[in-house]
Design brief:
Blueprint (H helix, E strand, L loop, with lengths): L10 H6 L8 H10 L2 E5 L6 H12 L23 E5 L8 H18 L11 H14 L3 E6 L3 H5 L4 H15 L1 H4 L4 E8 L2 E2 L12 E2 L14 H7 L1 H11 L3 H12 L13 H10 L5 H6 L2 H9 L4 H8 L3 E2 L1 H5 E2 L6 H7 L4 E8 L2 E7 L3 H15 L4 H16 L3 H12 L11 H14 L3 E8 L2 E8 L3 E9 L5 H14 L10 E10 L2 E8 L2 H4 L2
Parallel strand pairs: 1-4, 1-6, 2-3, 3-4, 5-8, 13-14
Antiparallel strand pairs: 7-10, 9-10, 11-12, 12-13, 14-15
Helix pairs in contact: 4-5, 10-11, 18-19, 18-21, 19-20
């Protein structure tokens, strides 16, 4: 068994130390032989840094590292190029001066490594000088690789004053790539967001954005075939740990970690989470613990969410390409932010003549559960740890249809909803209740449209289905609310589509910051109607 490359982002280190490398050189070959300037957006912890490191080794002509890979006999190894590799996530950017000095220091470090003396101490002049001197010294065109190009922008997105300064510095810095275009062999930038109105790319000669290009939909992440080709022994170890068959284990891994798509056809597994599963032999929310952007959750927490806002956070959306890719502000572009940071992915693309509509959804259970868990934390005064504790017990109580325990944990949760979050509307509490169910890990259908009404929610527990109806009032008793909920279920026969399974009915009543509920099995007389 080859070693698992957890935390290894350097291509040469993977190859030389017998780590698993999932071959991405077919896509790389297409890219480097058909174009010159590219941009790729992918969520954090998705293999972008390893991709850039692979490109660096390729352009440096490190032939031995590529033996056995797709590109090995298709590349001219007699040609090599000097490489400038910038990691913008290492750049400090809390002010105009700090950002400039940090960039200058990184450029000086690169110059020192290449044994080049630079005279300028002014940004962007020193960047231009670096390209000139490298081109002169090696007599070859230069390759520029920029990892997390947008890191200084994302780090300051909530502070408009600092952000304006950052934009100014970054724009002047990247414009050098246009003025030095004749000395450049290849340019590749990666990031999470494509900022519109920031003109970061205005200095480039039309960089090709391959984020949604179907040719590169598999350039990061693992396919199902990759898991079986490269990690079969690890899959068998996890199957043994959980007493699964091999096929059952593959299905569970897919349920938790597969589902990311950038073309609506090809799907990939989250590479970091999959590796951590094989490392720990335990199904956990690995990527979410390291990949969550504080920007996203700060944005959600700072918004006064009403029913429409909540629906917009996690309903499948019908969007254009520009809606997905262009990011303007944290207050307006919550869906674009969710997509770009990896919380939503492309479910399908509908083509109508020359236009395309993109439909989004959560990629997998890891992201869905964790997102709702964090969302609950923003609505309440509970920490994520406490939310997880309540969700686990709420999940167990539902599996047992334990009315008293369900009531207890719902009361615990609603008691901690912040006062400024409460909205005295039934739709708000319907949304909040469904968020709890999602966070507890259930398969939930929301607002199920029937021929005579809309059912609030259906929980699929396998052989058992729980039909849920929620009622809210500020002045009616719980007994009245719960009776009305049950009566609506009976009158509109919400249970009818599920009578092939064991059906339980759940009525939930909310009055102010108090909540009550009642379970009951569907009586046999209704099964006959």
């Amino acid at each position: 068994m080859k070693l698992l490359p957890v935390g290894i982002q350097t291509f040469s280190e993977l190859i030389e130390n017998n780590y698993v490398y999932v071959d991405k050189t077919k896509e790389i070959h297409t890219m480097v032989t058909t174009g010159k300037i590219y941009f790729l957006s992918r969520p954090r912890r998705f293999g972008k840094s390893l991709l850039l490191s692979t490109l660096e080794s390729l352009f440096k002509g490190e032939k031995d590292l590529f033996e056995g890979l797709y590109i090995y006999d298709k590349w001219d190894w007699e040609q090599s190029y000097p490489v400038i590799h910038l990691d913008m996530s290492e750049i400090k950017s809390k002010s105009f001066e700090i950002l400039e000095n940090s960039l200058i220091n990184q450029i000086k470090r690169i110059a020192k490594e290449k044994k080049i003396n630079l005279e300028s101490d002014i940004l962007p002049d020193i960047f231009a000088e670096l390209i000139d001197e490298i081109h002169t010294k090696f007599g070859k065109k230069v390759v520029v690789l920029v990892d997390e190009y947008d890191a200084p922008l994302v780090d300051n997105i909530s502070d408009e004053t600092v952000l304006d300064d950052v934009k100014e510095v970054m724009n002047s810095f990247y414009k050098i790539l246009k003025s030095k275009n004749e000395f450049l062999r290849f340019v590749f930038l990666t990031g999470v967001s494509r900022f519109s109105g920031v003109s970061v790319f205005s200095g480039l000669n039309s960089p090709k954005d391959i984020t949604l290009n179907k040719k590169y939909s598999l350039i990061c992440g693992y396919r199902k075939e990759d898991l079986e080709n490269y990690f079969k022994d690890y899959i068998e170890a996890v199957a043994l740990e959980y007493d699964y068959s091999y096929e059952e284990c593959l299905e569970e891994i897919a349920f938790y970690y597969n589902g990311y798509s950038w073309d609506g056809v090809n799907h990939v597994y989250n590479p970091y989470s999959t590796l951590m599963l094989f490392e720990d032999e335990s199904f956990e929310n690995y990527w979410y613990a390291t990949g969550t952007t504080s920007l996203l959750m700060r944005t959600i927490k700072n918004r006064s969410l009403d029913h429409d806002d909540i629906e917009g956070l996690f309903e499948v959306s019908n969007l254009s390409k520009n809606d997905l890719m262009d990011f303007e502000s944290v207050s307006d572009d919550i869906t674009a932010l969710l997509f770009q940071t990896g919380y939503l992915t492309i479910q399908k693309i509908v083509r109508k003549r020359r236009s395309m509509s993109y439909f989004l959804d959560f990629p997998n259970m890891e992201v869905k559960n964790s997102f709702y868990e964090n969302l609950l934390s923003t609505f309440t005064d509970y920490s994520n740890k406490n939310v997880r504790f309540i969700n686990k017990h709420l999940h167990d109580a539902f599996l047992k249809c334990d009315e008293d325990s369900v009531r207890k944990y719902l009361q615990l949760m609603i008691s901690k909803v912040s006062n400024n979050r409460h909205i005295a509307k039934e739709s708000f509490y319907q949304d909040l209740f469904l968020i709890w169910l999602h966070g507890a890990g259930f398969k939930v259908q929301e607002e199920v449209d029937t021929n005579i009404g809309i059912l609030d929610g259906v929980i699929d527990l396998g052989d058992i289905v729980v039909v849920c109806e929620i009622k809210f009032s500020m002045d009616r008793s719980f007994d009245e609310l719960i009776a009305d909920a049950f009566q609506q279920i009976y009158d509109k026969k919400y249970y009818a589509p599920y009578v092939d399974k064991e059906v339980f009915l759940l009525a939930v009543g909310v009055c102010g910051k108090e909540i009550d509920c009642k379970f009951k099995p569907l009586e046999e007389k209704y099964l006959l109607k």
